[in-house]
Amino acid sequence: MKRRPTEESTGNLGFALLGLLARRRSTGYELARRMERPVGYFWSAHHGQIYPELARLEARGFVRHTVVEGAGPRPTKRYAVTAAGRKALREWVVGELEPQPVRDLETLRLWNIWLVEPGAALELVQKLRQDHAARLAAYESELAEVRDSPEAHDPRNPMFASRLTLEGGVRSRRAALEWCDWMREQLESAMHDQTSAH
Amino acid sequence: MKRRPTEESTGNLGFALLGLLARRRSTGYELARRMERPVGYFWSAHHGQIYPELARLEARGFVRHTVVEGAGPRPTKRYAVTAAGRKALREWVVGELEPQPVRDLETLRLWNIWLVEPGAALELVQKLRQDHAARLAAYESELAEVRDSPEAHDPRNPMFASRLTLEGGVRSRRAALEWCDWMREQLESAMHDQTSAH
DNA sequence: GCTTCATATGTCAATATTGACATATGAAGC
DNA sequence: GCTTCATATGTCAATATTGACATATGAAGC
Question: Which residues does the UniProt record annotate as the domain Transcription regulator PadR N-terminal (chains A, B) (predicted)?
């Protein structure tokens, strides 16, 4: 059986890059940095993955590049999304919701805390709580920057979508913080019951 | 340079399998089904990944198998976690929190909804809301089954950990539902403003 | 003048994941 | 008797991801 030379469908990383480029044209290097923040909040990729994916997107006609002056040892390429790329992204956004594989290390850890002493479990919960609190603070400060601008209230402006996703991040981290506090109470009362039973 | 014949560190799938086996010994087939539910709520893997991973865990001494009667064309193997495997899992549970790569397709879609008409965006939000509502119902019914049992209040019992993770699922899905309702309001009021501006 | 760092683009080996293919048995329903 | 399905374990090719290696420039600080 012959294999076709790639070109099937755009993977999810491709849509992340198209979404980035639909907001602003960028070089691969800039995309890698924008992928850390803000897109890194919901999608992550290294530059080692980004450069080949850009080449694939270009082969499919979804992006095109122009060479600009830059500091690297090779020509610096600035990419922009094409009409076809924008269309593909739009169609994906409202397309079928396919079940995505779940990879939630935090919950996997907690599902196994019965194996360790309640004191160690409590420490883990407190560490997780700190992480959530730090993320919440970052989201809140970013949200404060966009919340009141008129663009963030125009549903066809990228800032509108940024506002919605940041709001979701804030809400989910607040819920996680409350969950951590609830878990702490559960562990503490269980430890207390154990002690007083003696 | 020679490559060592695997055996470095257990991947995350390995810990998911060890956690499953620490609760109850199982065949690979049973693990694949238990991986769908309940572990599938926070970690997923196909049987094509599970069988090779079991072999690697066995090579490292973390699990061992006995052959039992079964229906398949090959001998059916029942795996159990060893003391070394249990220790490795315990150490991982309270070990360093490494930043995990994020892959959140739902947020990636929403981050791009400015590209589509508000009406289509609204439809997407409603579809996402339905998904969250269905998941919430599943978590709530599972939580109701364990919540009141005494084992679920003993921090060294697996049911305790199940209860904590289910509670987290319920809380996060409730927050997501509220977020969806909030997004609907945002979209509807933006659409209304647009109409009345004419 | 020298070191360090941000800029900049790429490749490659190792590993992880997906989805299909392969195969065989026993039980249930028709 | 035949079909279908759950049981059961595995392999393999394609794809995705990670992390390291490679390389070169200009600016800043010493």
Answer: 17-91
